[in-house]
Amino acid sequence: MNLNFELYKIFYYVCSYMSITDAARHLFVSQPAITKQIQNLEQALGIVLFVRSRKGLELTEDGKKLFKEIKSPVEKLLSIENKKGDIPNTVRIIAGYSTSKNFLLKTLSKYDEIYPNVKFEVNFYPYHEAIDRLRNGQADLIFVNMKNHPNRDFDGLRLKKCFDVHDAFVVHKDYQGEVPKLLNLLDLNQYPIVCKSGKSVARSMIEGVFAEKKKTFHPKFELSNNWLIEEYVKDCKGIGLVTKEYITEELETKELIEIPTDIPLPVRDIGYALRKDFLYNQFIEEFMKELKKDLDFFE
Q1: How far apart are CA 229 and CA 151, in angstroms?
Q2: Are both 110 and 128 inside the same structural domain?
Q3: Domain shared by 127 and 72, yes or no
Q4: I need a labelling partner for 120 at 20 to 30 A (CA). Which of 66, 88, 142, 284 fits?
Q5: Which of 1, 157, 6, 138 is CA-nearest to residue 78?
Q6: What are the tens digits of pLDDT across the range 9-65?
Q7: Same domain for 146 and 175
Q8: Cα 258 from Cα 170, distance rounded (Å)
Q9: For the chain, what is the domain count?
């Protein structure tokens, strides 16, 4: 049976994204064109490749079998089709807001000048969804907090440590006189503490200290990210629980002052993960080397 490579190529990208919309965006064609080509492939093979469910697009058993068979050959042909061979069209990155703002943007800007034809997509997803997207081929590089997460989360993936980051309590210089020189963790409820909503390594540790004394930690304010906490604290309000590496300039100029604690807060490991079989891992590793050059505390 003589089938056009483009049909398998389109099928490959729809499977990689598990989205006709994203595949169409990647290939710079319309969604109806993608749908029509998938229908052409189904008719030629005499099988149904996709079904729609409440969760979205899903592969049928025949679709899964076909994708497994064509994945490696299509990726090899795509590498030949690409003039530079080892340069991807798109690199899809998942990283938190603070990691993107403080670490990634400078290197992305530099790499855009070196590889102007490579498109970089940066998005944020919760921890487990980020890993699922990487494993399912919907992301190429993810940055994760490695602390307290089991190794089995990364089965089949290549995980490497990037750097350590350190959480700390800080106040605006004009508010320094309102707080003690040393914070007792069990006294935190007495102060206007500002921290991230949800779970974090530092917050979990603090909650554990309270739980040992049969108490509950109640921060005064809960905000969605480090940047909001920094801005709130800069307005001379409250004691913020932030990551020191994200506020180096403010600490150096003493606009923000670190308040030590009686029990040291835990160090966090930031790592990055790749799929072991990703066609362009060498490109990603070179990107990480550039990122390392841009970060003087990178390990």
Answers
A1: 31
A2: yes
A3: no
A4: 66
A5: 6
A6: 899 989 988 889 888 877 767 888 899 999 999 999 999 999 988 878 999 999 999
A7: no
A8: 4
A9: 3
